[in-house]
Design a protein that fits this description.
mainly alpha; 262 residues; Serine Threonine Protein Phosphatase 5, Tetratricopeptide repeat
């Protein structure tokens, strides 16, 4: 079995090997519409012209942009002896198993790679190493490049950029400009993908600022974000995101962890 980072390549090569992909544009469309049963809306989004590789890559990109369930659903359609021979079925079954076993973070990495959103993964790795200046540069690029329709990836990029802006410095010791930008990024992340860890991180940042600049309005905001966080369950994805918080803001991380809020 190939490594997970080659998921896009695995499925693309599987598609390219299908005899029907050697046909012309109309024949390809007919195969995927009639025999495979691809959804009409998806059919209209694919560029069926060009080489087998170009068509296969375009199809994989669109499938992955629709999420893991859409990709799995399509893969399962090929697990049919009316469409594939025994060898091809063995390949698609391994692929289905691989996709099903991916953690949320691993799936996210696959999506980033399938769209060439390298700055997000590079920025995350650089952030973990503590090179906040370089991470900030990469993550700014990620925020610019990732469309808002990719809600989870776009939210993560903003969350990580906010952490890179803070670095190891306590929020209360940063400038007003940095505080405002961090709050803007975190608020945008929450709008895109409301996660318990995002809500608690923003609440903790504001609570840290409150210790040096106390105000009733600020405390009300802290309470608002905490209340919203309590209404959400913690997930394994929250745990994965907490790793970055621990690297940059250990005081805030341990405050959340010790309080068992996630």
């Amino acid at each position: 079995m190939r490594q997970r980072e080659n998921l896009r390549t695995q499925f693309s090569e599987f598609l390219q090997a299908l005899p029907e992909m050697q046909g012309n544009t109309l024949e390809r469309q007919a195969f995927f519409r009639v025999q495979v049963g691809l959804e009409p809306e998806l059919l209209t989004q694919i560029n069926w012209e060009g080489s087998q590789r170009a068509v296969a890559n375009d199809l994989v990109m669109h499938l992955m942009s629709g999420g893991r369930e859409q990709l799995l659903c399509c893969c399962q359609k090929f697990d049919n002896d009316q469409i594939c021979g025994p060898d091809q079925q063995a390949v698609i079954r391994r692929l289905i198993f691989t996709v099903g076993q991916l953690s949320e973070q691993e799936w996210e990495q696959e999506c980033a790679q399938s769209r060439d959103y390298a700055p997000l993964e590079e920025g995350a790795a650089t952030l973990e190493r503590g090179d906040y200046h370089q991470a900030l540069s990469l993550l700014k690029k990620a925020v610019q490049e990732i469309p808002s329709c990719e809600k989870r990836l776009a939210a993560k990029a903003r969350y990580l950029q906010a952490l890179a802006l803070l670095g190891r410095k306590p929020p209360r010791d940063t400038s007003l400009t940095v505080r405002e930008r961090v709050e803007e990024l975190m608020s945008d992340a929450i709008k895109l993908d409301q996660r318990k860890v995002y809500l608690l991180t923003l609440a903790s940042i504001k609570r840290d600022i409150y210790t040096s600049v106390p105000s009733s309005q600020l405390w009300e905001e802290v309470c608002k974000w905490q209340k919203q966080a309590r209404n959400l369950p913690g997930t394994t994805y929250d745990d994965e995101l907490l790793i970055y918080l621990k690297c940059c803001q250990p005081e805030i991380y341990y405050r959340i962890w010790l309080a068992k809020e996630v």
